[in-house]
Amino acid sequence: MRISPRPVLIDEVYERLKAAILSGELAAGEPLAQEQLAERLGVSRQPVSHALRLLLSEGLVTERGRRGLMVAPVEPERLRDLYQVRAALDALAARLAAERVAAGAAVDLSAELGAGSRALADGGLEALIAADVGFHRAVYAASGNPAVAETAEAAWPHFQRSMGLVLGDPAYRLRAWLEHEAIAGAIAAGRPQQAESLARAHAEQAGQATWRRLVAEREWAEPDREDPNPDDEEAA
Q1: What is the C-alpha to C-alpha distance for residues 196 and 186, in angstroms, rounded to an integer?
Q2: Are 71 and 161 spatial neighbours (Cβ–Cβ below 8 Å)?
């Protein structure tokens, strides 16, 4: 994690710490002592302090009382709520993109699909997550409505943290990319309703898979804790 001093040092430290949180190098619940982080990065405490405050405002870092800061846990209910919003945004973006194609616009998602295929073949989780994010951002851009991407952008770091849970399953990662291909096919064919339906289902299923995995991990770690939403999975 060591870096060389640069003019915009706070940004550099912020990006490095954020990447470490998203990749799991800094795990959920891990204490974040400024002195230790500064030593690992080879910088002073000041840029680390500023970077941690930025991450705190994004929800990637949280306070642990008087003991300082720690990497924020990935809360199942919070992720489920975010995925519900994302399902609506993804559906809107796919429909708008397909409508643009039907009206004569050119939308090409082949590069993003190719990146996903290569990531699947290589098997690297980091590359898979990057390809997944890249595909959805490309659909947002293809929608022609920049407000879609602007609205979703703040939540992407939280999605990236959760993606590692479900994309670690080889069966799920293949299914996810087959769904991407179907969404891209509906957009390329200029079929707004089909594109909207596929995109919504894809996001909803990803949200449910993530929620189930997180709840299972929480119950394993805290077997005596009662599930606050026992009917959610059945209702879904």
Answers
A1: 9
A2: no
Q: Residue 81 sits in a domain of what CATH number?
A: 1.20.120.530
Domain final residue, candidates 71, 94, 112: 71
Asked whether the beta carbons of 41 and 3 are under 8 A apart, the reply is yes
**Cα–Cα distance for residue pair 67/222, rounded to 1 Å:** 22
CB 198, CB 94: distance < 8 Å: yes
What is the C-alpha to C-alpha distance for residues 31 and 152, in angstroms, rounded to an integer? 28
Q: Is residue 117 part of a domain?
A: yes
- For the entire predicted model, the pTM comes to 0.79
Domain of residue 207, residue span: 76-235
- Same domain membership, residue 97 and residue 206: yes
pLDDT tens, per residue, the chain with 236 residues:
665 555 588 899 999 999 888 878 898 889 999 999 999 999 999 999 999 999 999 889 999 877 789 999 888 888 889 999 999 999 999 999 999 999 999 999 999 999 999 999 987 888 888 899 999 999 999 999 999 999 998 888 888 887 877 787 788 889 999 999 999 999 999 999 999 999 999 999 988 888 888 888 778 866 555 555 555 444 33
